[in-house]
Structure formats: C-alpha cells, structure tokens
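Working notes for the structural subgroup meeting. M.R. asked for a predicted model of this chain before we commit to crystallization trials. I am recording the input and output together here so anyone reviewing the notebook later can reproduce the run.

Input as submitted:
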Amino acid sequence: MGPDSAPGPAVPWQKVLWERQPFPDNYVDQRFLEELRRNEGLRQYRYWAVVKEAGVVGQQLSCVAIFITLWLYMEQGLLSPETLLSTSLVCALLGYGLYQVLTSPGESGCEPRTRLADLQSATIFLSFTFGFSPVLKTLTESVSTDTVYAMSAVMLLAHLVSFPYAQPSPPGSLSLNAALFASVCLASRLPGALHTFAMLSCALLVFALWPCLLQRLRENAPSQFTGVCVGMCVGGVGGLGSQWLGGAVLLALALGSVTLLCPLLLVRLQRHKDNIHGPWDEAEIHEDLSRFLH
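Returned structure, recorded in token form:
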C-alpha cells in the first residue's frame, strides 16, 4: 500500500517493528524510494582488457588442438617418438629456465623448491611412466576404438570446462586428471610402448607444466603473455589445419567467438545492467564480530 492509505498526518510513521502503529504492515511512506540505489559497485569493463583475459581460454583450446595434432602425426607415422621426446625435453628445459627467471625470490614461498628436488620429481615421473608404458599400451585393448575416442573427447571437454582460467597455476586436479585420462586413452592406440611414453610425456608438458609458466608470464610479463596467447592460437589452427581443414575452420570460429565476440557482448550488455538496492535488502553486519568468538 502507498502513502495515501495512511490515516492522517497527525501520527508519523516510524520504520520500527516493536511499536504498535495505526498503519498496515505493508505501509511505506514517500521516503521509501528516496533510498533507492542503482548499480551500486558496478564494474565497468574495457573491451581490449576483456579480450586479453579471454586469451587464456583461447590458448587452452589451442593447447588441446596442438596435442591432438601431435597424436594424429604419431598415429600416421609422420612423427617418430624419438623426435617428440627430444623436442619435449628441449621445450621443458627452456620453459624451466624461463620460469626460474620470471620467479622472484619473494614469490617462491618460505621454503622454495630446489633444482635438485625438481630434478628428482621429473626423474621419478619419467621412470614410472616409461616402466608402465607397456601396460598403458594394452590398457584399452578390450575396448572398441570408437569408445576410446568418445571417452577421450568427453575428457578433453571436461578438461576445458573445469580448467582454472583465473589462476592456471597449479592446474586444477579435475582438469589435469581429465586431460591425463584422455592422453592415456589416445596413447593406447599408438603403435608401440615408446609412442605411448612419448605421448604421455608430451601430455604432462602441455597440461601440467605449461599452465604454470603461462601464469608466470601473465603476472610478470603481460606484454609477452599476449603475444604467447596469439602464437598458441595461430599454432593450434595451423597445426590442426595440416591434418583436418574442417577442424581448423571450427577451431578458428571458436577462437574468434571466445576471444572477440564474447567480450564484445559482455561490454555491450553491461550497459543494460540494472541492479537496484534499497531498504528491502537483507541487513548486512559490517562490524567485526570475531571478538565474540573467543
């Protein structure tokens, strides 16, 4: 009910519940809408800033495309496992050196890992992966190829959906496990155990180590970060186009939508945002009540 329903100006209305007043329970006066606030704390986005942040999503799509391209080359015998292993080793060493350069002493934490500890972790992982490669090669022999491909596609999609784009380092456990599961499924369809070992080592480099380096570039070298994202997108489209032209076109459309169209829609739709706040909102306690918890 509005202010016309008041019995008269002789009795002023008070916004209290503990006092009996000659007004209906839903009565409000003219001051009700005076406290209306619109778009309080609204954040304004700039188009190119949103495009830059969306580049993380685009480069991750490209990482998946590059991994699939490498697997297609190995399946067709166009890429030997020795070449992939040597290339992965060189990339890992260069990436590790760049990561150390970009990491300042204050970011390493109270007890930073030593290079010896990193070497031990890498040696243990590579040793176990190499030892279990014959087992992983025969892991899906009783499963049809179509089922393996379907599982790989679903797991790679789960990897992209659950990837922590806001903070890629370290990669999320669900995202990383989904990517490694898809890698095992695809590697089991390669000709030999050495192919499986090379593919899994490449998967670790792409899905586990690369996001850590990407986060360092994002924090300490923002201009280079943008160039790296663009390079990954171009490499993903070009690599996939060498094997499947239709897939490259779809990837290019997806990258354009994610990195250019979606930010444009976000900025345009931000103008129509209309959030209202007022006395009808729930009460918020801003006082520090921690002293009452002891």
